[in-house]
Amino acid sequence: MPAILTHDLFGQGVLEDVTSLLNLRTPAERDAFLLGNQGPDPLFYLVIDPLMHKWSPLGNALHDAAPSEVLLAMREAALRLEGRERQVARAYVAGFACHWLLDSTVHPFVYWRQNGLVAAGVEGLDETSASRVHAEIERDLDEMVLYATTGRTVERWRPHERTLAASRAVLAAVDKLYFYAALWVFERAVDPRTFSTAVREFRLVQRVFDSPSGRKRALLGTAERLARRTPFSLICSMSHRARPEDTSDFDNRDHRPWENPFTHETSTASFWDLYDGAHARVLTVLDALLAPELDLAGARELTADLNFEGCPTLPGERLAW
Questions:
Q1: Chain segment 260-286, per-residue pLDDT in tens
Q2: What is the pTM of this model?
Q3: Cα distances (Å, whole numbers) of residue 192 to 58, 140, 196
């Protein structure tokens, strides 16, 4: 990722310009665009669904696949729809592209931070803790972005109330995008309700994790540590704190050098440098992606073959999942 609030606020920050560019006319289209800014992330939450959990790996597959193929598949799937569904799907694809843009820009920075912490020699913290460290970093950045952009904390900006808004009709249209994209990119026919179910589970998890006071978070975290016999809690790493600060321990505001773990390029960019850089590219990326003449070669040039993780990935590399 970045996490849920950063992606939503990124989308909110470009919504007015995107509305003008795409001529978004209805609340459903705007909801679809903002939902699209969450990208494939809702799919991760299918792990809690006993009937649909087998489709959760689609989330990682979409993150890891060649972005040119994924974005073209989503765009072409939207064109298969008609009427209001097509307009909603087009708005969703635009948001989905924003998710790719922010992810591919910021993810290498997050992984650099993650790798440094995992290798720091902290007792009990190793590669098996990577997902919890990743979540901790992104949660902290989420809290910073929320306060810096709105002046509020999760006491007054509850994630489960402010994000993931979409009607059944919107979710039904987006379900079709994922069905076609999975079929075309991975040659897998997923359950037609995969994405809508994932969003509902994501909403549920956000409600469960909601703990501005910290009391429920502490209780759930203790239960998780006891059950998993680990000193670290994924729940505590993902549940937002009411933190009224516009900085993060992980934001690199002092511009120290860091190395992209995928390309090994060195940068001094801070989180906000990366965030603002992605923001500045939104309209150019969307204009190119939605142009009728865009083909695979053009999509490769547009994405620089950087997948959602920020890792170079060529078209045709088939992922097993």
A1: 999 999 999 999 999 999 999 999 999
A2: 0.96
A3: 13, 35, 9
